[in-house]
Input
Amino acid sequence: MGPTWFTALSKEFDKPYFLKLKKFISTERQSHTIYPSIDNIYSWSRLTPLENVKVVILGQDPYHDVGQAHGLSFSVLPPTKVPGSLKNIYKQIKTDYPSFVPPSTGDLTPLAEAGVLWLNTSLTVRAHSATSHSNKGWEEFTKQALKCVERRERGVVFMAWGLPAQKTINRIGVNETRHLVLRSAHPSPLSAYRGFLGNSHFRLANEWLTEKYGPDGVIDWEILSSSDRDS
Output
C-alpha cells in the first residue's frame, strides 16, 4: 500500500472486520485463484497518493477473468482487449474532448498518476465468480478510504456511475458544498444509453477544477490518447 494511504488507513488494520477479511482472503487463496494478484490489490494507493487525488471514479467489483484486474476500477492491462464499459468511457471522453483518440488498450495508469482515483468498492474477487468477495469487509475498508478523501480541505470531484456508486457516495456523506458529485447511469453496455453517454462528466469535472484551482488543477483526460501513448 502506498505510504500516504497506509498512514491514513492504519487504524482499520486491527479492527475486527479487517482481521476477518484477511482471514477470508487467506482461506480463499488456498483453494481458488483470486484477482487481482496480491501485489496489485492496492495499486490504486501507490499510483494515486491521497494528497494527489483530484477525481474519484468508483467501480464495484474487480474484473474476474484472466489478465483483467490490476487494482484500478475499469482498467485492464494489454494485451487484454478493452471492456465494454471502458469503451463507453472512451466514447464520452471523446464527446467532451473531440481531439481525444481512444487508445487500443485499457490501461488507465496514466490517469491514476495524474490524480484520478480509480477505486472499486470491493478489492478482490474469486476467478470467474462475479461479486464473490462482496460483503466480506472490503466495502467498509473502501468506505473509510473515501472518507479520507472527503475529509480533505481540498475539494475533489466524485463521479458516481450507477445506483451502487451513488449509494456509496450517500453513505459516506460527501459534503457537496466542498466537493462536486457527478451522478449518472453506469457506462456498462447495458445501461450507458440510459444517461451515461452524454453526461459530460469529464468536461464538467475540469470546468469545476479550473474554477477552484486554475488551469493547473485539471485532469488531462487526453493523456490516454493513442497518439500520446504511441509516441
